[in-house]
Design a protein that fits this description.
By secondary structure, this protein is mainly beta. The chain has one domain. Helix content is 9%, strand content 41%. It has a six-stranded antiparallel beta sheet, covered by helices on one side. The chain starts with 8 loop residues before the first strand and ends in a 9-residue tail after the last strand. The structure holds zinc ion (ZN). The site of zinc ion (ZN) has 7 residues, from loops.
């Protein structure tokens, strides 16, 4: 399982209807809470749905494919 931190910015398979596809992780656990950076709406996704839909993560100001996301030490 990949490790995410609060505040991480990710993109999903499908963007938000507002046109944005950048989401900030604001809660994590069995359910993930994400905030759309376009309109600030918040959505809940189950962890399983989140893992299926997440595509990229922002690292050092660049979006990289989630498969290259390094697992961080906790
Ligand atoms: Zn939005």
């Amino acid at each position: 399982m990949l490790v995410y931190d609060l505040g991480d910015i990710v993109t999903l398979k499908k963007g938000h209807p507002c046109g944005e596809n950048q989401w900030k992780i604001i809660r994590k656990g069995a359910d993930m809470k994400l905030e759309c950076l376009g309109c600030n709406r918040q959505i809940w996704l189950s962890r399983i749905d989140f893992e299926k839909r997440v595509r990229k993560i922002k690292e050092d100001d660049k979006f990289i494919s989630i498969v290259h996301h390094k697992k961080k030490e906790e």
